[in-house]
Amino acid sequence: MNKSRHPLLKFVRSVLGHHFAALEPLLVLFAVVLLVSFHWFAAETYHWVSTAVKPLGWPDWMRHVLILVPFIILILLVLGLARIAKGGELSIQRVLQAANRYDALLLFLSPPGRDESDIETLAGAGSLLDEEVRKRFKGPWRMPAEAIFQQIDKLRFILIVPSADTSSATKGTIHNYDDFRKVFEPLLAATGKSAQIELLAGYRWERGVNFEDGDLVADAVDDAIHQLNHQGVKTSDILVDVTGGYGLVSVIGAAVAIDHGCRIGWVNRNDYQTQVYSISFVPDTAQ
Length: 287
Fold this sequence. Notes:
- This protein is α/β, with parallel strands linked by helices.
- It has helices spanning 7-19, 23-53, 60-85, 119-123, 131-134, 142-149, 177-189, 214-230, 247-260, and strands spanning 88-94, 104-108, 157-161, 196-199, 238-241, 263-267, 274-283.
- The protein is built from nine helices and seven strands, in the order αααββαααβαβαβαββ.
- It has a seven-stranded mixed sheet with strand order 1-7-6-5-2-3-4, sandwiched between helices.
- Helix 1 crosses helix 3 (60-85), helix 2 (23-53) packs antiparallel against helix 3 and helix 8 (214-230) packs across helix 9.
- The longest helix is centred in the first third of the chain and has 31 residues, at 23-53.
């Protein structure tokens, strides 16, 4: 039977686990550093207090009591962290009025599928505001068409995260980005709105993102959010749509979005409505 670990150890493990792969050696290192730091803190505190109060002529017992004060504060701080780390709950709230609330939409680009042979026709189909135009999409791009339409009034940026070619000879959607713009820019222009389609920037991503590598997907989403932040978009105004890409992309994209405080959305394949959720971890600080 596994013994339950101390809540503070769970907290430390979770923090280290988020940034490092090898947990146990790092926990040992963390413990050593903590002990050394505590020894340094004790020595420096004793020296400082003794030097400060010696001219006052206070008796030794008063100096020892005074030295205990910073240690008590430190212990209370550690206990406070442990109290927070004891647990909490995942707050999942559906945003009921989700339309036209976000300045930026982050999309994982899927291949056009059945619509690949109709790029020219779709590009001249009319306005994205027209439901009949959106219905002309028969492949995966129907989803981003609906996601964009439902945010069109406030939308300023549509940031595309495409996949890269893989060793399994799978062609990446980086090759479909130009066609995506070719289709959607005229459809957007016909609405009279000013949403701008952009590609994930940076030399690292010029060939797309390996959607089969979780670490790279996480880095790409992180960079995409920062790219939008640098353009003046607040994190709370970014909707990360996890409809496109592989299942791994959806899971990691959602995790990074939660970490940043973005909203998560996906298009329901039954009614083509975007479902938006606000997900956060609420620590339990009650006794």
